[in-house]
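task queued by scheduler; priority normal; single chain, no ligands, no partner chains; default sampling; output format set to structure tokens
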Amino acid sequence: MDAAADKIATMDGVEQVLAVYLGNEMFGLPIAQMQGVLETLPLTFVPLAPPAVRGVMNLRGRIVTAVDLRTLLGLAERPGVAQANMSVVIENGGELFSLLVDSVGDVHTIPVANVEEPPLTMPESMKRVSSGVFPLRDRIMILLKPSVFLKANEE
């Protein structure tokens, strides 16, 4: 079921993704799995959690695991900022996760036919969690598969 959710609400050969930013890098997350976008709420530390798990938050009475997308993707730490500015709440496997990102951009409706294979220069760890790349006018958006990277984080 999660793999199907990664295939973002495809209607008439298009997919909808939300652009999120980690530094200068742009990533796309499937709209179909999203529950909301909000400023990062206070986090409660979880002992012995994997490094990418920054804690848990209380979101309208539900406990939500907060995952730092930078750490999860192996990117450098945020310069001079201890915590992410924004949180994208997604559902995966019946659980809610908060993906901590630097900022959030626009929703993009992209033609499925224009999604390209990840470039050969992309690290294998990034290729594993990506469904491809989408070229925009001035940059490339890396399309992410949350069910893959959240499953890896649970192990």
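post-processing summary
- The chain has a mean pLDDT of 86.
- DSSP finds four helices and ten strands in the chain.
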